[in-house]
Fold:
Amino acid sequence: MARVALVTGGQRGIGAAISEHLHKMGRKVVASYAGNDAAAQAFTERTGIPTIKFDVSSFAACQEAVARIEAEHGAIEILVNNAGITRDGTMKKMDREMWDAVIDTNLGSCFNLCKLVWDGMNSRKFGRIVNIGSINGQAGQYGQVNYAAAKSGIHGFTKALAQEGARVGITVNAIAPGYVDTEMVRAVPEDVLQKIIARIPRGRLGTADDIARGVCFLTADDADFITGSTLSINGGQHMY
Ligand SMILES: NC(=O)c1ccc[n+]([C@@H]2O[C@H](COP(=O)([O-])OP(=O)(O)OC[C@H]3O[C@@H](n4cnc5c(N)ncnc54)[C@H](OP(=O)(O)O)[C@@H]3O)[C@@H](O)[C@H]2O)c1
Structure:
């Protein structure tokens, strides 16, 4: 039986590539999203992968969504915590709302969804969890104390939870993408983007496929000796 995989933020950007690669690998993928119904509909029409709308920062919404997914598709055995947002600003300009939104969406979501699939994974003695961090969580970034803290938190969260899962066949890993060619990065002014690319030894932005291949590798059935690790996929920009 195909294993069920939930990819949060899985209908566009990096998440869409992750969903499609897992689907090609034979996984039964469900892609979640926050509110972009048009993108979700177009994604399902193009790929045949079902989508579900819920807010990953709300524990109650996650609870309801996980119950629905498991009733309709089966137990979630692969979880990719990919949904994320930015609300950039220097400390002078950042307000509490910007802080909370980024912490709750990027890091709180990892707790919410891991908590909700954990008992099931424990009882089946199998699970694959991948949390999408960021190079900016490893190296920090000007104007991103909220995002860097959330992503850095993901890396600590991953190492701690990996220790709890190791004896019961659940692996928990993180991927730290560098700058990937998505809407999030294309929103950066062109001159700034060129400066960013100049700092990437590989000489280009990453692609969503570059990240998706890492997820396939870490979630393979026979990847059970890899846990608690952070896979940096950044073109050599930051060697951690
Ligand atoms: N792009 C990069 O260069 C880069 C680099 C390092 C790390 N990352 C990380 O990689 C992940 C994907 O980035 P991306 O560039 O592909 O992002 P993106 O294109 O902006 O897509 C974000 C996805 O997350 C969903 N989402 C946002 N808030 C949500 C919420 N509260 N509840 C449920 N879903 C929510 C969005 O749903 P809607 O479409 O409905 O809004 C969308 O599917 C993020 O965690 C990001 O931090 C990206």
Summary: The longest strand covers residues 170-177. The domain at 4-231 is CATH 3.40.50.720 (Rossmann fold). The two ends are 38 Å apart (CA to CA).
